[in-house]
Design brief:
- With about 240 residues, this protein is an alpha/beta fold.
- Helices cover about 35% and strands about 20% of the residues.
- The chain has a seven-stranded mixed beta sheet, with helices on both faces.
- Helix 3 links the parallel strand 1 and strand 2.
- Helix 1 crosses helix 2 and helix 6 packs across helix 7.
- The protein starts with 9 loop residues before the first helix and ends with a strand.
- About 40% of the residues are buried.
- The model has no long low-confidence stretch (mean pLDDT about 95).
Length: about 240
C-alpha cells in the first residue's frame, strides 16, 4: 500500500489541519461555501461530504454525513463515491473538497450523483484549478499526478489518494464542457468559479510547514480576491456547482 493511502495517517493529518491556523481558516472558508450551497438545495434530503478525510466539516454543517473511501475512524461511513449507499433521489447535496481529481472514473461518479440527487439538489466540487501560479506547482512541486493534456477522464489508480490527475476538474468542466453537457444533461453547470491563487500554497497545504500565520490569513484572502479579479488565470482552486434538473 502506498503510504498516502494508509488509514494510519488520519491523526497526523488532523493534527496538521488543526495546528496550522492559516490552513484551518482555508478549510473554514470552504465549509462556508458548503453552507452557501446548501441554502440553494431542497430540504428534507441527506447531505453528504465525500472524501472527508481528516477535515472537520461536521463541526460546521449540522447533520452532515462525512465519508471517505479510506477507513478513517472519525468519518460517518466508508464507501466508494461511484457506488454510494443511498436511495435514488434521496440526497439534497453532495459536497467535496480536493476529492474530484482523485476519482479514477468520474463519469461513473457523475452518473451515480445524478441518480442519487433530488431534483434541485446540488453537487459542489471545490478542487484544483490549473492557473498560472498553480500549474507549475502541480506539475513540478506536487506529489500528485498532473496531466492537463490527458485525452480521457479516466486514469489508472493504485490507491484512492496516490492516484490522481490534478487537472481533472478543469478538463471535465472547461476543456470538455460540451462533452460533459451532452453526457449528463440532467446535471446543470451553475457555475465554475476560480479562486484562491496563493493562500493554500502559503499555508503549506498538508505539509508540515506554513508561511501563513493565522493573523495574516485575512490579508492573504483579500490579496487572493484582488488577484482573482485581476485574472481568473491566476487562481489555484475552483468551485463548481452542479444542479440536478
Amino acid at each position: 500500500m502506498n503510504a498516502l493511502d494508509a488509514p494510519g495517517r488520519e491523526q497526523a493529518l488532523r493534527d496538521t489541519i488543526r495546528r496550522k491556523a492559516g490552513l484551518r481558516q482555508f478549510y473554514e472558508d470552504v465549509y462556508g461555501q458548503y453552507a452557501e450551497c446548501l441554502s440553494r438545495c431542497p430540504t428534507g434530503g441527506v447531505v453528504v461530504e465525500l472524501g472527508s478525510g481528516a477535515g472537520f466539516a461536521r463541526e460546521c454543517i449540522p447533520g452532515l454525513i462525512s465519508s471517505d473511501v479510506i477507513v478513517y475512524r472519525q468519518v460517518s461511513c466508508v464507501f466508494d463515491a461511484r457506488r454510494m449507499p443511498f436511495a435514488r433521489a434521496s440526497l439534497s447535496a453532495i459536497l467535496m473538497f480536493n476529492v474530484f481529481h482523485h476519482i479514477a472514473n468520474v463519469a461513473a461518479f457523475l452518473s451515480e450523483a445524478s441518480d442519487l440527487l433530488k431534483p434541485g439538489g446540488r453537487l459542489l466540487i471545490v478542487d484544483q484549478h490549473p492557473g498560472w501560479i498553480s500549474a507549475p506547482i502541480l506539475r513540478y512541486a506536487h506529489h500528485e499526478h498532473y496531466d492537463p493534456w490527458a485525452r480521457q477522464w479516466q486514469f489508472a489508480a493504485d490507491g484512492p489518494l496516490s492516484g490522481a490527475n490534478g487537472a481533472l476538474a478543469w478538463i471535465v468542466f472547461q476543456r470538455d464542457r460540451e462533452l460533459f453537457q451532452n453526457q449528463f444533461p440532467q446535471l446543470r453547470l451553475r457555475h465554475y468559479k476560480p479562486h484562491s491563487p496563493l493562500s493554500y500554497w502559503l499555508a503549506g497545504g498538508l505539509k508540515s510547514w506554513s508561511l501563513l500565520p493565522g493573523p495574516f490569513y485575512p490579508f492573504a484572502r483579500r490579496l487572493d480576491k484582488w488577484l482573482a479579479r485581476l485574472s481568473p488565470q491566476l487562481c489555484s482552486f475552483v468551485s463548481i456547482e452542479l444542479e440536478r434538473v
